[in-house]
Amino acid sequence: MTAGGLILAVESSCDETGIAIVDGGKTILANVVASQVAMHAAMGGIVPEVAARAHLRWIVPVLDEAWAAAGVGWDDIAAVAVTNGPGLAGSLLVGINFAKTLAYVHAKPLVPVNHLEGHLYAAWLADETREVAEPLFPLVALIVSGGHTFLVEMTDHLQYRLLGETVDDAAGEAFDKVGRLLGLPYPGGPAIMKAAASATRQDVVFPRAWLGDSFDFSFSGLKTAARRTIATETDGEGTSIGESALSEDRVAELSYGFQESVVDVLVTKTLRAARQVGARSVVLGGGVAANRVLRDRLADGAAAAGFPLVVPRPSLCTDNGAMIGAAASRRWAAGARAGLDLDARPSLPLARR
For the chain, what is the domain count? Predict the structure, then answer.
């Protein structure tokens, strides 16, 4: 086993119950996730109390499955890591209390991990499906998910400077809300991507919020523009989950225009930030990083600018325990430890300007 030993990592910040066993911050021995997507789909979004109760139900079976997959035991584990923020308070507390109990009973150190740092460190996880080069410092990372959209400069491990963040809605949240307006199923991101791919006309243009020379993002205006367009075209009838007052072709065209607006802003600002700081690589993480159009567009732009894009496979972009284990390995090596008084921090920041 590599230096640093094995980390058992627990992730429960939102609606995915994830437990992983990671060796040296890079090698995944087990990575088990119980998803709640189907449970929340009927409501068109995450219900916090329902999410917390589902974590309580699934966390022990997920741990059992992780042990079976990894083929190791407690004697092999160096530390227990857990996400302590940001996220939904109730969901976080389930994972934190579970991890604290494991650490106490088995006399293992407890390592707290920022969920956003986990998304970033997913880029260091080995991928058995393809060759992935490690990111090179300095780098610029775009983390884009349902709750977060921001750019950071990373000069070395655990060293961050915030370059820009959303001033209102996160990109993933905008995808979900506009998907609902279009009558598409939850989550909105994959549904919009699928609908957009079938658009025969690609002439719908939605606004871009550039915010001057800032690296900040804004998607509320785009969301409002989409709402007004849909209301106008449906004579105010609106839509419901899985049922649209628009034709299938029109849903595809509007999905294409919306997705293009989001991707254009994300890619343009990320590449400009990378050039400005002299980055040697770009990292893309977070649930929205599973969007193929975003991945391809950013990869093409980064290659043209002369620096590689490092992006985990889609299953490592969405919430999972392995990314927490990858970040925890670095935090563990840096001496990070938590006591049994560790609490949830729903608004925990990763970096400041």
Answer: 2
